[in-house]
Amino acid sequence: MITMNRPQRYNAFRAQTVHELITAFRLAWADRGVQAVILTGAGDKAFCTGGDVKQRAETGDYGPSPSGMFEIGNLHKTIRDIPKPVIAAVNGLAIGGGHVLHVICDLTIASATARFGQSGPKVGSFDAGFGSAYLARVVGEKRAREIWYLCRQYDAHTAERWGLVNAVVAPDQLLEEATAWAAEIAEKSPTALRFLKQSFNADTDHQAGLSNLAMSGLDLFTESPEGREGAAAFAEKRMPDFNSHVISH
Ligand SMILES: CC(C)(COP(=O)(O)OP(=O)(O)OC[C@H]1O[C@@H](n2cnc3c(N)ncnc32)[C@H](O)[C@@H]1OP(=O)(O)O)[C@@H](O)C(=O)NCCC(=O)NCCSC(=O)c1cc(O)c2ccccc2c1O
């Protein structure tokens, strides 16, 4: 079980958090005793609310890391490439890059109190890689476009109806249920599961190239006046004024 543990920031990630998540997934990958991974968030408020917008408003980036890079694209690829099923146990808000994380996981089990949505266009960000293309595979084009263009939040039962989550359980049952699913998986042939995961992935692996492009675009956009306005407005608890800073129409 891997737990994102920054509850004071609703488990939003910085570059250091992403580095630690990649390290944890790689350890689980190498450990023959691990047959499934559960990804969850600390506390009862949030699974993960994406990039730490306050950090971005403060320093213009997501802070330092051992590699010197913000490796969110590598985290997405690691979750897809680890040849063992990854179950997102969504214990609260899954927003922005935090929503993308659960979408990429093989399975999602949600607490009845969980809420789902994208927020990039509200805070000067976007994930035009797996965050949009793979989401559209999961929920269909119309719903994926609605999720990104309107930045609404959806409750767990709506997410289940849309095929975004596999099951909804009472909040106090979440980790027990996720562990039971992982135990059921652990009874199966690891090699069969490995081939199946790679087979499911093969159909969308080209989206890793799209993700590289999207992350390059995002690096430039978050440093632009329009991108910075989104993060500044969030940190200052005000509505953003994108139109005064827009870089292209
Ligand atoms: C998630 C919310 C809708 C929750 O609203 P609510 O009203 O319930 O709670 P608060 O707003 O009061 O939040 C409580 C407390 O937590 C802090 N917090 C919450 N989320 C974040 C966050 N993401 N970063 C920093 N801090 C956060 C919040 O400020 C409060 O602290 P106080 O001290 O003020 O009490 C709402 O919080 C919300 O809308 N949060 C922001 C969600 C968001 O926009 N996330 C980032 C999207 S961008 C992103 O994820 C992203 C992903 C990538 O992969 C990238 C890759 C490359 C470049 C950029 C990327 C990127 O930007």
From TrEMBL:
It catalyses: 2-succinylbenzoyl-CoA + H(+) = 1,4-dihydroxy-2-naphthoyl-CoA + H2O. The keyword Lyase applies. Signal peptide: none annotated. Its EC number is 4.1.3.36. The record marks Y62 as: Important for catalysis. Pathway: Quinol/quinone metabolism; menaquinone biosynthesis; Quinol/quinone metabolism; 1,4-dihydroxy-2-naphthoate biosynthesis; 1,4-dihydroxy-2-naphthoate from chorismate: step 6/7. SUPFAM superfamilies: ClpP/crotonase. Keywords: Lyase, Menaquinone biosynthesis. InterPro entries: ClpP/crotonase-like_dom_sf, DHNA-CoA_synthase_MenB, Enoyl-CoA_hyd/isom_CS, Enoyl-CoA_hydra/iso, Enoyl-CoA_hydra_C. Substrate binds at Y62, L93, A94, I95, G96, G97, S125, K237. Pfam families: ECH_1. The keyword Lyase applies. PANTHER family: 1,4-DIHYDROXY-2-NAPHTHOYL-COA SYNTHASE, PEROXISOMAL (PTHR43113:SF1), NUCLEOSIDE-DIPHOSPHATE-SUGAR EPIMERASE (PTHR43113). Converts o-succinylbenzoyl-CoA (OSB-CoA) to 1,4-dihydroxy-2-naphthoyl-CoA (DHNA-CoA). Belongs to the enoyl-CoA hydratase/isomerase family. MenB subfamily. This is 1,4-dihydroxy-2-naphthoyl-CoA synthase. The lineage of its organism: Bacteria, Bacillati, Actinomycetota, Actinomycetes, Micrococcales. The gene is menB.
